[in-house]
UniProtKB/TrEMBL annotation:
Protein name per Swiss-Prot or TrEMBL: Aminoglycoside phosphotransferase domain-containing protein
Stretches assigned to coiled coil: none
Matches recorded under Pfam families: APH (PF01636)
Domain Aminoglycoside phosphotransferase: 141-336
Organism in which the protein naturally occurs: Mycolicibacterium pulveris (Mycobacterium pulveris)
Length: 394
């Protein structure tokens, strides 16, 4: 059975809990739809909802609400405490953009934000929310009528480190330089030129050669190795498996596939490689291109010390995952094969396949996170793909 936290946040009682909190803002909840779910290995969770709300004046709006459980409820959230399934549960709730863990978020939605940061004299004319993970991060795309900017909002302590990463990398790579910064957690970045590599692959257009990817990674500055180090894909196996077990607690087919994969990954001996500067989340969605040229590298939030083999493994995990979806052009599969052939000449092939399998386990919660209507089937497909990668290691 799912954890009491997830059962409450995603079950039939969720509207009652959110409605009680919404009433404090003078709103009546008419409909609630989960949009993004983050599950932690402990079983605690954070959910972003789309909510249809009726205001006291009779007007109707669609709002973003968020709820989180466990030890990570940020100070300032509206807290509801009680018992569910025989266990005590606390829930922290807030509405967009008043995220208590992201104090800069409300200011980022202000039309005068660019003017306040000294980046122009006009007001923002268009705002798009590109990403929002409650209590973690938000990315807004804003336009002032002339230029497009991206406002990245993080916890203040994290924003300081991300700014430092951009300052280091933008001197050596096509990384957007920091154009504005606020101590409460907002980073302003100019729009990077080019087309996302993911779109290029979907259209079957010309993509950069794997050698260009390696040259990009080679250019990461050595100073990044002074940043905190993340665990490798193999070191994250147990945490990723625990989170997926909570998400799929009522899906025996998913759990059986997961157990088989984890048992096999537990037999893998991790062979440490050279520590070098890495991006930390290197895949096609982070790259912008024009033809064979790489014009942008984004999302340096996890850049730091690591192993190059994990960079190739993450990219291959994403590319092979795209090949599961019929909507993708055959170019994606061919490109994955080119990247694999190149990476095999740079890192130990057997270890590369093992780490790619581990990286796919980390991606297996993706369909659940976005609440895909057929997420169990999509999750099984990713787990089966990971097992194929592992079997190909010999």
């Amino acid at each position: 059975m799912a954890s009491p936290a997830l059962n409450l946040l995603l079950g039939p009682h969720a509207p009652d809990v959110l409605a009680a909190a919404l009433a404090q803002y003078g709103g009546e909840l008419e409909h609630l739809q989960p949009g993004h779910v983050n599950v932690r290995p402990s079983g605690a969770g954070t959910v972003m909802y789309w909510a249809a709300v009726r205001r006291a004046d009779g007007s109707r709006t669609t709002e973003i609400l968020a709820a989180t459980t466990g030890r990570h409820i940020p100070h300032g959230a509206a807290v509801i405490a009680g018992e569910h399934l025989g266990e005590p549960v606390q829930i922290g709730i807030w509405r967009w953009p008043q995220d208590p863990a992201l104090p800069a978020l409300e200011a980022a939605t202000d039309p005068g934000v660019l003017r306040e940061l000294g980046l122009g004299t006009t007001e923002v004319t268009d705002v798009k929310v590109r990403a929002y993970r409650p209590a973690q991060r938000a990315v807004l795309q804003v336009c002032d009528g002339e230029r497009t900017w991206f406002l990245k909002v993080l916890r203040p302590s994290a924003a300081t480190q991300v700014r430092a990463r951009h300052d280091l990398a933008s001197a050596h790579l096509p990384v957007p330089p920091v154009a504005g910064f606020s101590a409460d957690g907002m980073i302003v970045l100019p729009e990077a030129p080019g087309t996302p590599l993911r779109s290029v692959l979907a259209d079957g257009a010309v993509a950069p050669l794997p050698e260009a990817l390696e040259a990009l990674l080679d250019a990461l500055p050595a100073e990044l190795t002074a940043m905190p180090r993340r665990r490798s894909h193999l070191q994250l196996v147990d945490d990723n498996a625990a989170a997926l077990r909570w998400a799929a607690a009522d899906e025996p087919v998913v759990l059986a596939e997961l157990d088989d994969l984890v048992d096999a990954l537990h037999t893998v001996e991790e062979v440490p490689g050279p520590v070098v500067p890495v991006h930390g989340d290197f895949y096609e969605g982070q790259l912008l291109t024009r033809g064979e040229r790489i014009t942008g590298l984004v999302d340096l939030d996890t850049a730091g010390p690591g192993e190059r083999i994990d960079e190739w493994a993450m990219l291959l995990a994403h590319l092979s995952g795209l090949d599961l979806d019929d909507q993708w052009h055959p170019t994606a599969g061919r490109y994955a094969a080119e990247v694999l052939a190149h990476a095999d000449r740079r890192v130990p092939p057997r270890q590369l396949r093992q780490r790619t399998a581990a990286a796919l386990l980390g991606l297996a919660t993706g369909p659940f996170r976005i609440q895909h209507p057929h997420w169990p089937e999509h999750t099984v497909a990713r787990l089966e793909l990971a097992k194929k990668w592992l079997a190909s290691a010999g």
